[in-house]
Amino acid sequence: MDGADFRRLWDELANIGPADTGGYLRFSWSDADLACRDWFRAQAAARDLRLETDRNGNLYARWDASPPPGEPNDGRAVLTGSHFDSVPHGGAYDGPLGIVSAFLAVDRLRAEGAEPKRPIVVAAFTEEEGGRFGVPCLGSRLMAGVVDPERARRLTDPGGTTLAEAMRAAGADPDLLGPDPDRLAGTAAFVELHIEQGRHLDEEDAPVGVASAIWPHGRWRLDFTGEADHAGTTRLPDRRDPMLTFAFAVLAARKEARLAGGLATVGRVEAEPNATNAIAARVTAWLDARAPDEAVLDEILRGFESKVSERAGRDGTGFAIAPESETPIVEFDGALRDRIAALLGGAPVLPTGAGHDAGVLAAHVPTAMLFVRNPTGVSHAPRESATDEDCAAGVEALAAVLRDLAC
Ligand SMILES: [Zn+2]
Question: Can you give the pLDDT at residue 267?
Answer without folding.
Answer: 93
